[in-house]
# Entry
Amino acid sequence: MFVKIIGGAGFVGNHLTKILAAAGHHVTVLDLKKPLVRKANVYVPGSGESSWTNHVKFEKVDITQYNEIDWAIDRGDFVVHLAAVAQFDQAERSPGMTTAINVAGTANILDACINNNASHIVCASTGSVYSTKVVSPITEDMELDPKSMYGLTKLWAEQVLLHYSDKIPVCILRFPHIIGSGKTWGANSMILRMMNGERPTIYGDGEQKSDFTHVDDITQAIELALNKQATGIYNIGSGESRSTLDFVKWAEIALDKAHANPIFTPPRNVDFLDFKYDISKAKRDLGYSPKYNLEAGLIKTVDEWDQWL
# Structure
């Protein structure tokens, strides 16, 4: 399979590149920067031989520039779209840039895939597209009412993709909070602060619950969606919800650091009181089966931290 990973230099993209290349796929990373992939020889075409029989290629591409993405997509490609402005604060501060990348960039990718007869698109989306009023477990047909600029632009991107899904097979995977080595923001920022002897910051009282999912389960879902050429929308998560205080407690254990003494700040309107996915559709259609709960995911994250940073 010839796979183009757009945004492959990011957190999930680095993990996915390694997984797909190891599985024997021909992987090309399309991004503005070269990915940091351990145990894989990533190179710019024409720069030299690769030590891998099935090497990973890299092409510098800006998805806001249609001509660049159009030249990078070939007939028969399987395209994984991970590129996005994904941090809440950054998205709120820069609505123009966020819309250009998350919405117009997605439209450019879609257009290039249709024009060049790509085979399939798998697009990363988010649980932030749902209304914060929905009751867990969250199914794919529940109310959509994003409260963040990030969630809003990801919903628009979904709608653009689905509008043209009669022209190319499209699969949208809605991810929750992702943990794993190589990520220093989001929930992982608490781990980083604790590693540095600093107090982690918690929004609200810490009792709010989230679906913390390890990146290996995220890449599992993407690989399954590619192999099955799945279409439609799927929630991808761990199958459980755990409180932020649980996260801190188990991060303390994984790091062997007691008494993190978190700093509590006012809650954000973008956060859910109890976020847990119903993943039965992904289990049924994709064969998805999460391997890590919060405890195991945090231990793996800490153990592999230095391999990805």
Observations:
- Confidence is low (pLDDT under 50) at residues 48-53.
- The longest helix spans residues 95-115.
